[in-house]
Design brief:
The protein is 52% helix and 7% strand. It has 557 residues and is α/β, with parallel strands linked by helices. Among the domains are: 152 residues, no CATH class; 225 residues, no CATH class. The protein is elongated. The N terminus is likely disordered.
């Protein structure tokens, strides 16, 4: 029985486990986002299993090549010496990780972790590694069973190769079905959620001037919850006047849901017609905004700019997906780009036919995936005949071509996370510590601002970090970065990928959690509101102090 169990489970390799512990130790070093003990433990268990697997593969290749091997007392002695060193190093890193994590947590205003944090890490890591190890042994046992059957009918070498191919095919079919089922289920849930949001969104506005009303050209039933929330929320004229002490207008918000038109061009034309109906081209400012994957518009960005322009402003957006941004990026990449291009083409095409001295100032805006699609659509060469007045893009994802081009034009003396571009007359950067007001020259005719947090892995993830350090790691750490962060091949890639998954839950002002206070200064720089003073900026920040994903008004129009 014992021999049979050993044949199924297989031998346990101490050298491979020591390599796994080194991987575990590397995963404990800090990255951009603080990790809870559960997440850190699962990550530690997975990389330990990865290190163990690499050791097994290397050992297999070593034996297959018939390379020399130590045995007997020398091998046992070396194992003890190396084992003692690895375990001692691992325990030192484990203890130091608490200091590293608390340093990062303190910089982000999070509660500090205690010694129980380390116990949970080890527990979750052990359980994760055990599950991964047993899964690996099951696969290995399956290979041995299939190989043994092939031994009966063919030579050993051929049996080994065919056995390996058979196991790979089995795993492919099993995981393929699981992955496809998961994606389909996720899409079904997204669609069901979208339909549920259609039914439970806010009621139709009664004001005939608003999008979705009976007089509107856009059918309220097809807009969906994100668009309905955008249209019916935010400050009205009374709320703005109460804050500014001056007469104000009701801001215009036009939103076209994906169900309102069959094609991006149809939705763009519908948006233009509604803008005309509401008199948007008679306002002081017009913003073409790109929403996130689900169609969500960040009130923390939209509300402040309406206050600072006394409501004399119009914003238009068109939905392109029902999926969360990561799924929309992978499965509907071109959809968001096509919609952004169509909307900009149609609105800018009409806008440039208007008299220069009476038309509104025109700006582009987007957050995260919306920033990517908005940048892609903003072809500056196409707009050179009649350029826009500016753009404000927040949290631009790392694949964004235009953002990457601008980043690489930075002054080498400036940092990668907060670069300086030329003299700052065309492009400036903002963060949680800078509002884009400082530059060596005045603004030119067009103003472009990027808002990016130094700890945002959605912005600063680097696919090449598998083998080389990201550019920002060559600079001194930013204010909310750990001084103990350093590059490690393979491990850094794992850490940044995990950081992206955790970045949406970071404290406001860090990670991918952009919020109202940090939008206000850049909006002032980009749109240059009249009669706006620095003390007005501070008052508006205090007024909008509602945290992440909160606007500046609790009023519903």
């Amino acid at each position: 029985m014992k021999k049979s169990l050993s044949w199924i489970i297989g031998p346990f390799s101490v050298p491979c486990m020591l390599l796994g512990l080194l991987f575990f130790a590397a995963s404990l070093t800090p990255s951009l986002i603080p990790r809870g003990p559960e997440v850190q433990g699962i990550l530690g268990g997975l990389v330990t299993a990865l290190g163990y697997l690499i050791g097994q593969v290397v050992g297999l290749l070593w034996r297959a090549a018939e390379m020399p091997r130590l045995s007997g007392r020398p091998a046992l002695g070396m194992t003890w010496v190396i084992g003692f060193g690895v375990v001692a190093f691992f325990l030192w890193v484990l203890g130091s990780s608490l200091t590293w994590q608390n340093d990062l947590r303190q910089k982000m205003g999070l509660e500090l972790a205690d010694a129980l944090h380390l116990t949970k890490i080890v527990l979750f890591a052990a359980l994760t590694f055990l599950a991964a190890f047993l899964l690996g042994r099951v696969v290995a046992s399956l290979f041995r069973l299939i190989r043994a059957w092939f031994y009966r009918i063919m030579p050993p070498r051929r049996a080994n190769i065919l056995g390996f191919i058979t196991v790979v095919l089995i795993l492919f079919v099993v995981t393929r079905d699981g992955i496809v089922d998961g994606v389909v289920t996720g899409l079904d849930e997204s669609y069901e959620a979208a339909q549920d949001l259609f039914q439970n969104a806010p009621p139709q506005p009664s004001d005939p001037r608003m999008t979705g009303s009976d007089e509107s050209l856009i059918d309220w039933a097809g807009i969906g919850s994100p668009g309905r929330d955008f249209i019916t929320s935010g400050p009205d004229a009374a709320a703005i006047s109460a804050f500014t002490g001056q007469q104000a207008l009701d801001p215009i918000r036009v939103y076209v849901g994906r169900a309102n038109g069959d094609t991006p061009q149809e939705r763009a034309q519908l948006a233009l017609a509604e803008l005309k109906r509401q008199g948007a081209f008679e306002r002081e400012v017009l913003i073409i905004a790109s929403p996130t994957g689900t169609g969500w518009m960040d009130p923390g960005s939209q509300d402040p700019v309406e206050y600072m322009h006394h409501g004399d402003i119009a914003t238009v957006a068109a939905q392109y997906s029902y999926l969360q941004s990561p799924l929309a990026l992978i499965l509907e990449t071109s959809t968001g780009l096509d919609q952004a291009i169509a909307l900009q083409d149609v609105v800018h095409g009409y806008w440039k036919t208007l008299p220069i001295d009476t038309r509104p100032r025109l700006y582009m805006h987007g957050l995260s995936l919306g920033a990517w699609s908005s940048m892609y659509a903003t072809n500056l060469f196409r707009l050179m005949d009649d350029p826009i007045d500016g753009a404000f893009w927040a949290g631009p994802p790392f694949p964004s071509g235009f953002w990457n081009y601008i980043q690489n034009q930075r002054d080498p003396a400036s940092s990668w996370v907060l670069p300086k571009i030329g003299e700052g007359s065309l492009v400036r950067y903002a963060s949680h510590t800078a509002d884009a007001s400082e530059a060596s020259s005045e603004w030119g005719d067009m103003r472009i601002v990027f808002l990016q947090y130094s700890s945002d892995p959605v912005v600063f993830y680097d696919p090449y970090s598998l083998w080389r350090a990201p550019p920002w790691m060559n600079d001194a750490p930013a204010e909310d970065m750990s001084e103990h962060l350093f590059f490690m091949p393979i491990v850094t890639q794992f850490q940044l990928a995990l950081d992206m998954a955790l970045s949406f839950g970071a404290p406001p002002g860090h990670g991918h959690a952009y919020y109202a206070q940090d939008y206000i200064g850049p909006w002032v720089q980009v749109t240059d509101p009249s009669r706006w003073l620095p003390e007005d900026t501070e008052r508006l920040k205090a007024h909008c102090d509602n945290g992440f994903q909160a606007g500046c008004s609790n009023d519903v129009r």
